[in-house]
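Structure tokens please, single chain.
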Amino acid sequence: MRFDRAFLQTFTVQVIQSAASVATGVLIARGLGPSDQGRYALLVASVGVGALVAALGQFQGNVLSAAERSTSGRTLLLRSALQCLGVVLVLLVIDKAGLLRPAVRGVGDLAYVFIAVLCVEALAQMVRGINLGQHDVTAFNVGTFLQRAVYLGLVIVLWRTARVALLPVAIAWLAAVLASVLVAGLLAWRRSEAGSVTWHALRYGWGTGIIRGLRALTSVGLGIVLVRCDVYMLGPMLGMATVGQVSVATSTAEWLWYVPSILNNLLFAASAADPSTRGVNQIARVTRSLVALLIVASTVLMFVGKSLVHLLYGAAYAEAGTLFILLLPGAAALALHMVVDAYFAAKGFPPITIWGPALALAGKVSLNLVLVPRFGAIGAVCATSLVYIFLLMIKVGALSHEATIPLRELLRPTWRDLAVGLGSLKEWLLRRA
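Here you go.
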């Protein structure tokens, strides 16, 4: 298949990136403590939502545009840079009017760093979309790897100099994203055909691209708010220290999402370029393989997860270990959902990609309002697991019905899947021997 080697390359890079992300998160959490870790989690959540809105769905829009016309890379790069410049100006005006800081209460003293990180993260999304649209998976992997490696390196420097605080950490984050954008953008520029970029070329299709990305913006935005819902709700209800505990548990549970999230992007690009039955079969095979991987990983983490959280983050995060165990079923379900959802993303984000997460978000908010006052953070993470499982059931059922694939072909691993995977790995290793 077209992306087999890309999957293997990405898996290898992702394992390294995951280790870097875990190490970065541990050092930041240990250095900040639960309360400031809660503020950092709020900053991360706000940047995630804000960058998505600023990008206006143009990660997916650039994937589709670059796939349709490979020569458009330079035009898309300049268009993305202009869009982010416009966002900077809008946010500065909003801040000048005194409206920004109340909107990000808890991190309002970092307003200018917040604006900078948000806009560069939005630009990074758009540039990576161009990489994927050009089927340059190596450039995509280099960009994401560089960001995590630089961020880890700078946090280590802060740790060794005893300067782990919110402002230095946020500046380190900004520097890491900038490095990623510069490298990924340069690779996309070099891969595109040379030629003059006119103002007409920049304007032509820009509005269409934004309209095309609105469904993606709505769908992915709902998903991000769903995942970060606790950060926004638990601060006023239980305090920022509890947000810090939940964020550590959530970050650890997200280990299960690293590979599925990158596979989601690759499968989206592959299925958009090849909407035939082969693309559906590929998603089914990856989903079955992921089920086997998640069963093993979740079982191991169920027994050792609590001790692992305490070992990594220290005694200050004792509560996070218990919360992590309760999050595991939901985290595994959302990991599978990410791969299944690639099918619907390639179909142009049909209504199910909007009403599915909207229902899940409404359920999450409702359950939090009922369970958190009575059970605290434990009620919140139990609600999270239930909602993620519900969302997976919706998407798996819809894929099975629409693509006429029996549920067993989506969820039951086979020995043949293992053999194919090992064969691809063997071939990849021999080529590099």
